[in-house]
Amino acid sequence: xxxxxxxQKRTASTCVTCRARKVRxxxxxxxxxxxxxxxxxxxxxESVGVEVVQVESHTPNAIAVPRRRARQACLNCHAKKxxxxxxxxxxxxxxxxxxxxxxxxxxxxLPLPSTAASGAAGGSADVVMRDEPDLGAGYDQGAFTNSTxxxxxxxxxxxxxxEPLALRAxxxxxxxxxxxxxxxxxxxxxxxxxxxxxxxxxxxxxxxxGITALLADLGPGTEEYGERxxxxxxxxxxxxxxxxxxxxxxxxxxxxxxxxxxxxxxxxFMLHAIASRFATALRLNHENPNLCFLARESRRRLMWSISxxxxxxxxxxxxxxxxxxxxxxxxxxxxxxERHFEFDLPEATExxxxxxPGPDGTVPPLPDMVGFMALHVRIQWMRSKxxxxxxxxxxxxSAEELGTLPIQCAALVAELEAFEARLPLSFxxxxxxxxxxxxxxxxxxxxxTHVWWxxxxxxxxxxxLAGLKEALPPAALAQLDSHFVAQSRQRCYEHARAMAxxxxxxxxxxxxxxxxxxxxxxxxxxxxxxxxxxxQTAGGEMGFFAEGVQELAAVCLRAARQTTAGAACVSIQADxxxxxxxxxxxxxxxxxxxxxxxxxxxxEGSSMxxxxxxxxxxxxxxxxxxxxxAMSMGPLDLPADMTDVAPVAPSNVSGxxxxxxxxxxxxxxxxxxxxxxxxxSWASFSTDWLNMGNFPQGGGAS
Length: 702
What we know:
Number of helices: 26
Strand content: under 5%
Distance between the termini: 118 Å
Largest sheet: 2 strands, parallel
Structural class: mainly alpha
Number of strands: 4
Shape: elongated
Radius of gyration: 33 Å
Order of helices and strands: HHEEHHHHHHHHHHHHHHHHHHHHHHEEHH
Strand order of the largest sheet: 1-2
């Protein structure tokens, strides 16, 4: 039987490169189409090995096939669905756009050695996991995923917010939040262009989501997530403390406002100082003609936002102001109107100080390029001047200062009247102009500019309302002309009633009330306090009746409830509710007769013991912060019946020490209430949660 023929050797129809890559090969000899297109080595010799490499170096006698796809995309590229090179420590895209590049640890990531783990956890924050990719369930939960713990025991940054959430936040921000003057520096087209290009600063993105989650509705659970975004944004800004930038400064300004709305005043106070330093380093208080109009206008608006925040935080106290002399320190023009900013239409406006009246006493009309943003900046500057005047007048006034007080008040009133006289008819307060803006995003700034004009008058005249803690001492009031005092009181009540009517008109609009800053609830509380003061001291004379005042106070409460969110605003609402239920507790010199020696009485009649180590006499901070009750004792002198009291013994604050100690105050920490922010100067916060006991000696409050 003959042997069967031996089969011929089968020729390979797939090159080893395509087989290793697991792709179809056309079997073309010399070099297949795939390898020719990609520039790979091509061989049909099955004895040749194939090595898939990430770099050019490879094992001898092997075909090097570069990896075409990264084993794992970084978090930034994954969130944007962009191609990621997967290179370490930064991918090509993050390096090009200057972004922070982080990789999510995989399930099979090995724990770091103990020494490396301790170093990574306590040293650098740039912990990058470089093992197996895993973009599974933990990350796919999107923007609501908490920060991820690394195997080393550290914490990675929270993932990039997903695109649907970010875009929804942008829409809500520019629809309901952007009109708040503090946020007017954002330009929508520029922001969206930078975001879609993947070059938007992470801190700015997180801060925008955080403030929008607080003031608008982004869905269930977003408010808590927004707070984490704000914390992360603040951390990112502080991490780059030595490299200030416009984008990080914008994020920091938003964080400061979120802190104030959330009643975290100590944090806001300190972060505002850093933001002011950022602005100085970036020369925002000077014009830069080398930039395009949009960049210059955005810088101006950012600088004016910082200035307005500064005047609100200082409340007339020069020690707390970083931009106290805004006219001299900020050498830029006022913002242009919104249309010119939105559509990139360059236009010059006016400086901060308005032009003086002409020889005949008439004021020049307002130019068309000046919009409500510029008017809002100017009215806030005028209010800072009013607060500086009243703060100085109520802090131990001398006979000479009292003599010039009516002249100073007349000059400030003249500036306020000139402000209103320059407004064109379409800018003035009327029911028709209000209804024309019912569905306009400019409704909020229109309302608040006119509310602040009324509030400036109330701030000025309330120092003549005996019984208020912000008022002049009774002895000082007695030295003033009685007709002048009576006229000032009447004007204060008139402006308060007019403000309440404005709130009623806003609430009667067919649309919902506009989202506002914390300013509107504060002004609403001040308005209600003035009305109750008029009812209790001059009801018949001013035509005030209990039912009418209660109704107007209820309008103020509704306005505060429907326009602003945040823990601080909730406290203001509680104050208005307490005022409606109990009336206004007036403070007078007789209230001190049964008081604890050395205690200061606040507006609700509760005593506040002097801070430790200050002694029995009222300090400058107490006088400025508590007004009439403290100042009735005299200018920084002990009461007459306490001149023989022995000095207070040094406190013993730390275990193991006795007597005087250089660290006596060190353990107290830093914590103070809203009196530091001009808020207590217009009584917009509840005294139930004030914490002035640990405030360092020598500070002041408005």
